[in-house]
Design brief:
The structure is a single chain. With 87 residues, this protein is mainly α. The protein has a single domain, classed as Arc Repressor Mutant, subunit A (Orthogonal Bundle), CATH 1.10.10. It is built from 5 helices and no strands. Helix 2 packs across helix 5. The longest helix has 15 residues. The two termini are 23 Å apart. The C terminus is likely disordered. This is PucR family transcriptional regulator.
Length: 87
């Protein structure tokens, strides 16, 4: 998990936030791109990058959700990167 938290794509975007939104969108890159207001190719690249870092097949919902549950408590995808969620 630490590797993913420390890893950033080339533009400095938070990969964990992308993964949370991807999961909220049921693994749909198009919907994820719409929510993040980025191009679908960017989402696909980030998902590929997450797979490379973690070694997990996050395209499978159960794997993705188990991994996300292991992330730090209190993280919410609507919070800016580095901010702790309250409540």
């Amino acid at each position: 998990m630490r590797k993913l938290a420390d890893a950033q794509d080339d533009t400095g975007n938070d990969l964990i936030r992308t993964l949370w939104i991807y999961d909220l969108c049921d693994g749909d890159p198009g919907r994820t791109a719409s929510m993040l207001r980025i191009h679908v190719s960017t989402v696909r690249f980030r998902i590929w990058h997450i797979r490379e870092i973690t070694g997990l097949e996050i395209g499978q919902a159960a794997v993705r959700q188990r991994f996300l549950r292991s992330t730090r408590a209190g993280f919410r995808p609507d919070c800016p990167p580095g901010a702790a969620a309250v409540g």
